[in-house]
Every structure is written in structure tokens, then in C-alpha cells.
Amino acid sequence: MTQAVREAPIAATRRRVNVAAVAPFVALALICVLGALANPRFLSFDNLTNVLARSTFIATIAVGQTLVITGGGLDLSVGAMAAFVSGLTILFLNSGLIDNMPLLIASAMALSLAVGALCGLFNGLTTTVGKIEPFIVTLGTMGIFRSLLTWLAQGGSITIRNSDVRAAYRPVYFGDVLGVPYPVLVILGVAVVGAFILYGTAYGRHVRAVGSNEDVARYSGINVARVRTITYVLQGLCVALAVIVYVPRLSSASAATGLGWELTAITAVVVGGTRLKGGVGHIWGTIAGALILEVIGNIMLLSNLVSEYLIGAVQGAIIIIAMLAQRGMSGSR
Amino acid sequence: MSPPIADQGNGTSPRLDQVILEASGLSRSFGPIEVLSDISISVRAGEVHAIIGENGAGKSTLMKILSGHLTPSRGAIKLDGAPIELKGPVDAERRGIVLVHQEIMLAPDLSIAENMFLGRELRRGLIVDDREMNRRAAEAMRVFGVEAPVAVPVQRLSIAQRQLAQIARVLAVPHRIAIFDEPTASLTPVETTALLKLIRDLKAKGVGVLYISHRLEEVKAVADVVTVLRDGKWVATRPSAELEPVDMARLMVGRDLLALYPPRPPAPTGEPALEVTNFGAAGFAEGVSFSVRPGEIVGFSGLVGAGRTELFEALFGLRKGDGEIRLGGAPQQWPNARAGMRAGAVYLTEDRKSKGLLLEETIATNLTLAALDHFQRGPLIDRAKESHALDEAIQRFDIRVGDKNLLAGQMSGGNQQKLLLAKMMQLDPRVVVIDEPTRGIDIGAKQQIYRFIAALASEGRSVIVISSEMAELIGICHRIIVMRNGRVVGEVAGEAMNEHAIVVLATGVDAKAEDVRA
């Protein structure tokens, strides 16, 4: 085909790509307008910060998931991993190993990050070294992590027993800096670091290359297994961060903790414009996707238009609509 | 099996020379750009009509219009004198117009037989008749003189085998007009000869053939009529008897071509840069030993399946292999491509599109991908340095792009090859292995690639060129190593470098092999 033939459609494609990248934010803005119309209370500072804080868990995990998916992988175990890491963290807080309160909490956070990273490393090595589909591996670890938590909790729940510890840890979810809640800062921090890694560093470009075409990456001298494994470790760290913010909220972990988070996180990633088969990732789009899901739930609670029992159905519909919109914009079949 | 010919409609057999397909005033625009303007062309029964032109001349666009993949912006198509409107490739096939694509379009997980009968599987009762389909597929492949494994997934076959399978598949559809878009780009001389014979058979049966190729010798050998396009416009239509390849090249580029091959750099005499001893690639090559000096250009010739690509992929840790490698005298272990790159040796894949470049990424991203650690400032990618490298590469390798933000997949084959070369040169290697450097690229770009290769050698780098085009190996190499069935069977150099000598070694048959021009 001729040069000219190619250049014409490509110019159009690039325009579309930009539209696709902006679309989640436009959608988020429209939904917020809808929310304000449905109930003026939606725009209140308290409500908005509450929505943002509640979206922290999914948004944080979804940033990690964006990296994993961009690298051509998938992690279904994140919800169960969150439950498992929560359980271990609380058990550590209850253990009484450390008397100094700030040190105890800092150690619990460090433990949480270490366990998250190890869980991610296990997922990563099993898929890359073991050469097993990530869907299968993480389906397996999803069962393992959740079952371990259930076993640790003996079928019940694990709760922070010491009320002093609870009081000391509480501000991590409920506290704020100049009115901005800590969880919101966590979202911002994770997104900035995630975007820095994906767009700024050589590693991030390797992630995109590996997800885009593994053979090209291999022939270019990129260590495909290492690049992929690290995405799972980063995902584990994101899960651990989410846990660090989650634990003070309910001070308890049970078999129901993080149930379905993996699907909500993947929904946020896809709604945000990241391509499910890899190669293209949008960190900020993912944040918008996570907010869209949370805001819609919030609007349904505030208004009486649709029963809140249908939140799951609406979120399910969103992912399908988002995919249809992406397809329509990219013009492919 | 000869491919079945369509029943010729209304019971009459076609008179040879009768015009089957006639296009007049075809134009096609994409947005504001007209890529094809006012092209008229006709194809007669029993005639091979070649379309030649540089990349960008509009050949593929024209073929896509004639086969229903694109609709013309203006102009008309007549079949047997009656105006028709092609509603799509299926409609075109129903009318007996089939296209052999330039790109390989087979389902990689299905076998040759399964691909060949896709959508029209043979059945016995409710069950597909695999045995019969395999038998017929093997027969169809035998027309090319190839014993192809028809029951294994095509992704395990070589590109040439896939290409032949694709041709066989298309020709299994009843047809009156067969369009071939660069069918020989990935074939070696023996398969090319078989394909040209098949085309002559089609011709004898009254099929009209449209044939696109960059290989002008081949066009001269097989075509009755040649139409030349340039920049989307018609330049000339002449009987091929009146045109020599050099005339065709002149019409294509619109100016006199300098010599196709650059002057050969003087043959070097230094100590070998790369020495390979008793190397094997599991199942593809064994006991291979050779060496290359700094500044030397060594060719690797052989038939499809001789194991050349596999040998070098194994050498660079891209597939299983073992043996001794020395670089500048130092023993090497290359478990992956990175290890070879660190030591100063690079391999440029023959499969640009699926192994060489990220088609959906920009030129700059592709350029620096293999050498990204040279483009870092702290943890960040140094965009300024990257952009500078891009400008340099565009200039040095004459990568012709109007827009530097173009995606690699949107560039012509010639520009992609130049980009792949530029990408690997970012590593400043001492040893460069280039697999099929000019596959599917036009003559102007070819000429440039040959000059780049000669320049690399002049800079003191060792260059290994793997190619199925014997003429180019003879044109640019100091010596040529020939492989057959995974082993090195001989080497030719100097005066002894000629096609006959290579074919004898490559086939192991010491008889005058059928020449392409036969």
C-alpha cells in the first residue's frame, strides 16, 4: 500500500486514540453533573470526600492491575489477597510483639507490604517461570489466599482487639491533611507513581512492549519474564497499600473482605481505556474508571431512581457500555 | 492436483485472448489524498499481466479494488463486458476473482489442511473428513514440489511454507481471475520456480492472472504484458517482450537507476570477529561451523527449511541450541538476545512485522527499544536524547516519513526495514546478522539497504546476510555459505559465486537446475 494511503487513516486513528484517552474523564464529569441534578447533597464536601475515600481500595488496586494488564497479564487474586494480607496484618497488630504504638503500626504496614509483594512474586513467577496462563494461576491463588484467611479466622473474623491500637491506627483512613483525607492522598500518590513508572521509565516502556508483542520484546533483548513478574509484585504492593488504608476502616477482616474486588478493579481498568489484551495502559483513566464506579453507586444511594440493590447490574452495564464506546471510537470491527 | 478452474459460465469455454476483466478510470482517495488516479487496465483469458511499481505506486490499492476489498472513488469495472459492482471480497470470489494476499492470512492454530478447507470442510455424514482433507492438501502442496506437514498448526511452519499454503488455499476456490500480490517475496528459487510453473499452468487453462512483484527478472520470465504505475498514476503498458528488467526499473522510478549493488568493500584479512564451532539448533541444524572477519560480508544461502533462520535464532538464544561461540576470541554463552547484544552481536529477524517492530508504537519507541538503557537519565527516559537519535536515524538510514509520530505499522516495508536496522545499530554492534534484509521492499529501498550493509562492513563490522535471493547475496557478499537440511554443505567465493553453483549445493543435485527464466 502506499505511504499516502497509510498516513491518511493513521491521522484519524491518532485523533481517536486521544478521544479514547479523554473519554473516561468526560464520562466521569457527565455522571457528576447527573448526580448534582439528582440530589444537591451529592456535591457536598462531605459526600465527595467520602466517595473519594471509599474508592481508594479499588483505585489503588486498579493502578497495579493496569500495569499487570498492560504487560499482557491478569490478576484475579487481588480481592482474596487483600483479605489475606488484612488478616495477617491484624494478627500482627494483636500479637503484642511490639509495645511502642507508632512502631507497631509502622511494622504492621511494612509487614503488609512485604506479604503483598511476596504474594505478587508468587503469582508472577508461577505465570512466567511456570509458563501457565495468568487467568489460571491467579484463579488458583485467589482460592488459596481466601481459604488461608478463612482458616486463620477459623471461619469467623479477625478483629483488632486492643482499642488503643484501633484508636492509634484510625486516622490512616479517617484523618486528613488540610481537609484532604489521607486515602485521597494515597490515590494521588499511587497514580503519580504508577504513571511515572509506566510513562517515564524504561521499565514502563518494556511493560508496554511485552504486552504489545512478546516476540518483538524478546528479539529486542528484553527479559520478558522479569518484566512481567515485576508487574505482579507491583500489583501485590498496591494491594498491600489498599489494605493499609482498609484495616483501620473496619478494624476487622473476614471471609467477606475484598469479595469481588478483582472484578471491580478490572472493570475500572477497562472503563479507563486500558486494553485488556495488553500493550496500552492508562493510569489516570483507571483512576477515572474507579471513581465512575464509586460515584454511580453513591448516586444510586442518594437518589430514589433505581433500587440500590441493582448497583451490581449498573456496574456490569457500565463495563459493557464502555467497551462498546471504545469500539465505536476506534472504528474497528 | 491442479487447482480446479471455475466452470466458465453459460457453458461456453472462453476463447483465449478474450478480455475477462476490464477496469477503466479507477481512482481512489483516502481523505484528501488521491492514491490511485485514473487507472485503466484489462486482463485477458490466458494472459499474465504484471503490475509493477515502487512501494507507494498504488499496486496494492489497485489489486484491493479489483478483488473487492476496497471500493473505487471513481471508475468502473466490467466482467465479461458487463459492468459489475464488487460488494466485497466474497462477492468477488463468487464471480471468480481471487486474491493471494501479500500478508499471510491463515489461522495460526489450524493446520494447512484445516486452513485450506476453512468454511467448506469436507464431511462424511456429520463428521469432518480429516483424512481426505489432509490427502488433498498434501496433493495441493505437492504442486509446488513441497512435502509440507499438512496436519500440524501453521504457526510451526516456515514463512515460505505458509505462503505456499496460502496460495494453494486461494486457488482451491473456483476462479477465472487470479491476483497474486508479491507471492514470491518469501520463497526461495526452487519454490519460486514451482510457483511460476503453476502460473503458466493457470494461463494454459485460460485463467487471467494479475501478478505483482518486485522481482523484475521474474516478471520478465512469466508476464505477457507489464503495466507500470508510479505515484498512483499509470505510466506504461507494454508487452513484456519489449521490456528488459532494466527498462522496467527505469519506468518505475522515472529516472536511471545507479548500479543496484554498491562497490564491494575490500575483502578483509584480519582475525575472525565471530567464530562458531559445531553449533546445532534442536531439530533444525547441527554441526555448523563458520567464522566471520571484521569488515566481512558473509551470505547464508539455502532452500526453505535448510535451517538458516533457526540456526541463527538458536545462536542468539531465541530458541534451543548448543555449540561453541567465540567473539573476538572470547568464549560466549548467549542464553537470550540480551546476552548477545551485550557482547556486541545483534540479529535482525526476517519477520519484521511480528518479531521485529511494535507496529502500534511510534518510530522513536521502536528505535530505542533494544538499547533503552542508553537513553536513560536517572530512572527516566531521556526524551531529548531519544528525539535526537530519531533525527539522526531518519537521516542516516533515509527513513522517509512525513510525520515523525507515525506508528511503525503504518510505514512501508522499506521504511520498516530501515527502522529495524537503525534500531539494532543503536547498540553499536560488532557483528550484525540480517535475515532477509530486502523481503517485500521496493527496488529503490533495496538499493539503499545494500549500501547500508556495505557501509557497516566498511566501518569494520562483521555482517552476515541470510537471504533467499541468490542474486543479492552474489551482489553484496564476500563469500556465501550454503546450507542444506540443517548442515553447511559448502561455500562459494570470488569468481565461483554464481547462481548455478549455489543451487547445486543447496539442492544437492548436480544437474543444471531449472532457471527462473526457463
Q: Could you walk me through the main structural features you see in this protein, from its secondary elements to its overall organization?
A:
The complex is a heterodimer of chains A (333) and B (518). In chain A, helix 4 packs antiparallel against helix 5 and helix 12 runs parallel beside helix 14. Chain A starts with a helix and ends with a helix. In chain A, strand 2 and strand 3 form a beta hairpin. In chain A, the strands form two sheets. Chain A has a two-stranded antiparallel ribbon. A two-stranded antiparallel sheet of chain A has the order 2-3. Chain A has one domain: ABC transporter involved in vitamin B12 uptake, BtuC (Orthogonal Bundle). The N terminus of chain A is likely disordered. The radius of gyration of chain A is 21 Å and the shape is globular. Helix content of chain A is 76%, strand content 3%. Chain A is mainly α and 333 residues long. Chain B is of the alpha/beta class and 518 residues long. Chain B is built from 17 helices and 24 strands. In chain B, helix 7 packs across helix 8. The radius of gyration of chain B is 24 Å and the shape is globular. The two termini of chain B are 23 Å apart. Chains A and B meet through helix 1, helix 9 and helix 10 of A and helix 10, helix 11 and strand 20 of B.
Summarize the structure.
The complex is a heterodimer of chains A (333) and B (518). Chain A has 333 residues and is mainly alpha-helical.
Key features of this structure:
heterodimer; A: 333 residues; mainly alpha; ABC transporter involved in vitamin B12 uptake, BtuC; two-stranded antiparallel sheet; 14 helices; B: 518 residues; alpha/beta; Rossmann fold; six-stranded mixed beta sheet
